[in-house]
Amino acid sequence: MNILVINSGSSSIKYQLFKMPCTAPICSGLVERIGLQNSSVTHKVYSGDKERAVTLTLNIPDHETGMIEIGKVLTEPGIGVIKNPEEIEVVGHRVVHGGEKFSQPAIITAQVKEEIKKLFSLAPLHNPGHYKGIEIAEKLFPKASHIAVFDTAFHQTMPEKAFRYAIPNSYYTDYHIRAYGFHGTSHKYVTAKTLKYLDKPDAKIITIHLGNGCSMAAVDAGKCIDTSMGLTPLDGLIMGTRCGNIDASVILYLEQQEGYTAERVNAILNKESGMTGLTGHADMRDIQKLIADGDEAARLAYDMYAYRIKKFIGSYAAALNGLDAVVFTAGVGENDSLARELACRNLDFFGIVLDGQKNNLRSPLLREISTTESRVKVLVVPTNEELEIATQCVELLSHSNKQGK
Ligand SMILES: Nc1ncnc2c1ncn2[C@@H]1O[C@H](COP(=O)(O)OP(=O)(O)O)[C@@H](O)[C@H]1O
Ligand SMILES: CC(=O)OP(=O)(O)O
Ligand SMILES: [Mg+2]
């Protein structure tokens, strides 16, 4: 079954084409730096253990343009992998916010699209892009079944004490205001890999997803018991453009002092804050260059970014009442040794000791970066949200077939 998976993040679109049940992709690609300078599409085609990659530097101002470029590259003679869009049987779409409506994957219908649209205000950097992406994909691949897989699903096991906010109960009952948590597909995938690696199904682990958006999860025996993002993907860690945890009064204060509308404050906190607010850049590679040039603000931003992670490690170790492993994943987590080093520095009290040399080695594989004496293992586990989505699509379709469709 040919399954094309579209994973659109806030700054990138990733795609992979699988011929399931084979878990090795036929091709994969990354549309990067969307809306920034030097945006590009990197398309990789695999045959056996050979890989052929092409990178096209293009002007990609938004996710809509990115999706159209993906459609072109898949069928482009020479670098494409299909002759006809009808060869795609299923398109699996990552959808960040599923609210309380979706705790499982769903076949996309007009009603499902309406629900995704209703959640725009709760995931302003994501759901609008997903919606457009789905609409374009439906036109590009009209014969395929389109399936949405939601970031929120993995976190549905959180106990109420972890997901409720201490605001009047009616806001929960009337508006479902609660923490949902995001990046669930990634936390789920790296959790499974880690438990298998540790050979310990009941392990207590902390998964740290550091991409453009960043989140952490406390996972006990494979079940999420807490996570750092909240009602929306704005909460928790410091991110590329998002502030993470903040005293809610800051919002009121800005509205009073500057006369800002709620919409303006929303844009400031989601798009102009985080590493961008502190350094002018969202991409950690750009910020590292500033640090190398002696830029104090960039250094402070890195320290703040890592300190926030460290505080969550401490609180999740307490929530779990034990810790077997800390797992770094996603763009920053997999590639940025400085962020990992700063986040794990001086955590020997918790039994976490990083091995500087192992931490600096670059590899696309699951690896251990703690010392052999470290009581808690520190791992880098490459995420694969696309494979997880393809797997969930197959499960959903075989389940619906068994139901007699
Ligand atoms: N070699 C690298 N060193 C440091 N950071 C990196 C490196 N490669 C990628 N990144 C970071 O990863 C981020 C993208 O991560 P990713 O998980 O793809 O994000 P998203 O899915 O949110 O778009 C980039 O913004 C950049 O900060
Ligand atoms: C939920 C979220 O922040 O996703 P991403 O990191 O892909 O932007
Ligand atoms: Mg991502």
UniProtKB/TrEMBL annotation:
<dbReference type="InterPro" id="IPR000890">
    <property type="entry name" value="Aliphatic_acid_kin_short-chain"/>
</dbReference>
<feature type="site" description="Transition state stabilizer">
    <location>
        <position position="183"/>
    </location>
</feature>
<keyword id="KW-0067">ATP-binding</keyword>
<dbReference type="GO" id="GO:0008776">
    <property type="term" value="F:acetate kinase activity"/>
</dbReference>
<comment type="pathway">
    <text>Metabolic intermediate biosynthesis; acetyl-CoA biosynthesis; acetyl-CoA from acetate: step 1/2.</text>
</comment>
<feature type="active site" description="Proton donor/acceptor">
    <location>
        <position position="151"/>
    </location>
</feature>
<protein>
    <recommendedName>
        <fullName>Acetate kinase</fullName>
        <ecNumber>2.7.2.1</ecNumber>
    </recommendedName>
</protein>
<comment type="subunit">
    <text>Homodimer.</text>
</comment>
<comment type="function">
    <text>Catalyzes the formation of acetyl phosphate from acetate and ATP. Can also catalyze the reverse reaction.</text>
</comment>
<keyword id="KW-0547">Nucleotide-binding</keyword>
<keyword id="KW-0963">Cytoplasm</keyword>
<keyword id="KW-0808">Transferase</keyword>
<dbReference type="InterPro" id="IPR004372">
    <property type="entry name" value="Ac/propionate_kinase"/>
</dbReference>
<keyword id="KW-0418">Kinase</keyword>
<dbReference type="Pfam" id="PF00871">
    <property type="entry name" value="Acetate_kinase"/>
</dbReference>
<feature type="binding site">
    <location>
        <begin position="209"/>
        <end position="213"/>
    </location>
    <ligand>
        <name>ATP</name>
    </ligand>
</feature>
<dbReference type="GO" id="GO:0005737">
    <property type="term" value="C:cytoplasm"/>
</dbReference>
<keyword id="KW-0479">Metal-binding</keyword>
<dbReference type="GO" id="GO:0000287">
    <property type="term" value="F:magnesium ion binding"/>
</dbReference>
<dbReference type="GO" id="GO:0005524">
    <property type="term" value="F:ATP binding"/>
</dbReference>
<dbReference type="GO" id="GO:0006085">
    <property type="term" value="P:acetyl-CoA biosynthetic process"/>
</dbReference>
<dbReference type="GO" id="GO:0006083">
    <property type="term" value="P:acetate metabolic process"/>
</dbReference>
<feature type="binding site">
    <location>
        <position position="7"/>
    </location>
    <ligand>
        <name>Mg(2+)</name>
    </ligand>
</feature>
<feature type="binding site">
    <location>
        <position position="94"/>
    </location>
    <ligand>
        <name>substrate</name>
    </ligand>
</feature>
<feature type="site" description="Transition state stabilizer">
    <location>
        <position position="242"/>
    </location>
</feature>
<feature type="binding site">
    <location>
        <begin position="331"/>
        <end position="335"/>
    </location>
    <ligand>
        <name>ATP</name>
    </ligand>
</feature>
<dbReference type="InterPro" id="IPR043129">
    <property type="entry name" value="ATPase_NBD"/>
</dbReference>
<dbReference type="InterPro" id="IPR023865">
    <property type="entry name" value="Aliphatic_acid_kinase_CS"/>
</dbReference>
<feature type="binding site">
    <location>
        <begin position="283"/>
        <end position="285"/>
    </location>
    <ligand>
        <name>ATP</name>
    </ligand>
</feature>
<keyword id="KW-0460">Magnesium</keyword>
<feature type="binding site">
    <location>
        <position position="385"/>
    </location>
    <ligand>
        <name>Mg(2+)</name>
    </ligand>
</feature>
<comment type="similarity">
    <text>Belongs to the acetokinase family.</text>
</comment>
<feature type="binding site">
    <location>
        <position position="14"/>
    </location>
    <ligand>
        <name>ATP</name>
    </ligand>
</feature>
